[in-house]
Amino acid sequence: MSKVKSIDQELSRCINQLLLKEPFYAHILGGTVRVISDEIDTAAVGIRNKLIVLMVNEKFFLKTLTTTSSRVAVLKHETLHLV
Question: 33 and 51 in contact (C-beta within 8 Å)?
Fold first, then answer.
């Protein structure tokens, strides 16, 4: 098995970390649809087809953000836009 985790696995792991530390934000984030896209440079939230989506650039999330804490912080930041 590769040491590099898939974007889906890593997003789930980071959302679980957020759930343990700050469940309110994880609960809000849990209601979003995840979209992996290179159409954005980093991460964003928005509405597509009447659904709230969390959009994440895979390269940004896995390569630029090198620590779990920085990944969780970005997810919390995006969740704050929704709140």
Answer: yes
Neighbours of 78 (CB within 10 A): 21
Structure tokens at 62: 């896995």
One digit per residue, the tens of pLDDT, for the chain of length 83 reads 344 469 999 999 999 999 999 999 999 999 999 999 999 999 999 999 999 999 999 999 999 999 999 999 999 999 999 99
